[in-house]
Amino acid sequence: MKKIIFGFLIVTSGVFAQQAEVQFRQAVKLKNESRFEESLVIFQQLLKADSSKIEYVYNTSFLYSKLGNRQHEESARQNYFLKAEYLARKAIAIDPNNAEGHYTYALALGRINENASSKQKIANAKLIKGECETGLRLNPKHSGLYHILGRWHRTIAGFNFVEKGMINAFFGGVPEGGSYKDAIDCFSKAVLLEPGYMLHKFELAQTYYERGEGDDNILCKVWCKKVLEMVPVDSDDSLTLEKTRNLLAKVE
Question: What average pLDDT does the chain have?
């Protein structure tokens, strides 16, 4: 009797594992198609069944970060971002040598910082940079990490006099790096690694505009037009197109 039960458990376990693998592949497919809401539902189910599997954890974190921007209420947005942060930290705890955990942690912190106070932005600055650099050591071809690092450099470069004073007061100086040139280098690498992702090109155009030196307005126009040649695949792309048109209008 014990053998039969034991054998039944093995078969049952195998069936569950196969079902989970099918669900995982479907969730990844939906994610890659930017069908984030549908993907999140499946990943939430997978995570509930097995919260120790790192692929479930960091993918769910990523989806919370992406979908947080689609929430209309600020409290809901921050709730999504905080869930993304928690799961990313958990992914790093499961395997600190997996670049995706560091990427999703930096992504979540970046999302939280978008509407944060200057003090919180500054407090998270070194942490975001450190996570990006760790992730890139583990995976030097991770376009998402270059994108976040590019935004980090641009943010630091754009700090005003008051914010720089706060950095000096709380941290003893501006974190190493933080120039428009570094930001442009990072976004350029992201474009090379993932040319089909519209937001990399927009952020490159935005960085040229913000620096505003020499031929930067011309380069901003060039990259804006490259963005406008692309076909949107989701609502995020549609928003990027709108932002690109607004940016182009400023330099024409």
Answer: 89
